[in-house]
Task: inverse folding
């Protein structure tokens, strides 16, 4: 086995096609087939299954893919550490929830790139569960997510504590009147969003079990819908104060544990850690 075999295997896994993998790795399909068979012979396991439409990973193949990505990252880290020992270079893929995009990403980029101009940062917004899974499976280097995160494979550092508030339209009924309606209308991100889970938990504490969700995928969309009186939502108080102070919104404090959200930076527990990721983590 050599590292090129693993690169070919990753290409097949990513695209579900021997032909496409051959194109991307600048080889021929027969060589892709031979290299995959060599890996299967070495491990004594089938790594791929072939259906009528695409190639898919077996359970053993999924495990090898995780190790392959880890090996690739370690080799890259070794190259940088040995050949460019005095430089911090590379690319980092960072995940974050929507409010982190709004509140912290501009400052992160300015601060980090001032100190490490040779590191390229790429940010992806998403749901907490998706991003945690992407960090564990080497699709992200790290992610900003709401605590708690119960995964022994991940290290985490506290970044910030936010106070959460219920947000309603300024023009229209007050919160008490809105909660008395059936069903209560709420504006939220999709399932898996920590803010949605907090709002549902808060409604339950108020005895509200009948509510109707309107699902949006952007912060701006949620603000627009709430301002229009379509429903209520829950957001970090800082988001409203810093970015939407002139919008026609009313906020209500939450006097319970639900009203505090801690954001943590999670990353894999691995040694050695690449210089770029180590520098990013040490900012916090």
Result:
């Amino acid at each position: 086995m050599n590292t090129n075999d693993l690169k070919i295997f990753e290409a097949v896994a990513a695209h579900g096609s021997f032909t496409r993998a051959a194109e991307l790795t600048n080889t021929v399909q027969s060589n892709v087939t031979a290299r995959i068979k060599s890996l299967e012979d070495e491990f004594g396991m089938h790594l791929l299954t072939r259906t009528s439409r695409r190639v898919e990973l077996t359970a053993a193949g999924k495990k090898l893919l995780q190790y392959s990505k880890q090996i690739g990252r370690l080799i890259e880290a070794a190259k940088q550490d040995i050949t460019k020992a005095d430089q911090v270079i590379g690319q980092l893929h960072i995940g974050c929830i929507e409010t982190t995009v709004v509140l912290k990403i501009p400052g992160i980029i300015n601060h980090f790139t001032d100190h490490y101009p040779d590191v390229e940062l790429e940010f992806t917004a998403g749901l907490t569960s998706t991003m945690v899974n992407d960090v564990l499976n080497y699709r992200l280097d790290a992610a900003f997510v709401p605590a708690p995160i119960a995964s022994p494979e991940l290290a985490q550092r506290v970044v910030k504590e936010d106070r959460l508030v219920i947000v309603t339209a300024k023009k229209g009924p007050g919160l008490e009147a809105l909660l008395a309606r059936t069903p209560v209308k709420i504006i939220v991100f999709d399932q898996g969003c920590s803010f949605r889970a907090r709002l549902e938990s808060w409604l339950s504490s108020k005895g509200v079990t009948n509510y109707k969700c309107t699902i949006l995928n952007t912060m701006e969309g949620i603000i627009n819908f709430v301002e229009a009186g379509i429903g209520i939502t829950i957001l970090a108080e800082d988001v409203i104060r810093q970015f939407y102070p002139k919008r026609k919104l009313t906020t209500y404090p939450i006097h319970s544990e639900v009203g505090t959200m801690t954001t943590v930076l999670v990353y894999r527990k691995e040694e050695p850690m690449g210089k770029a990721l180590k520098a990013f983590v040490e900012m916090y």
Notes: The chain has three domains: 3-82, 87-161+262-282, 163-259.
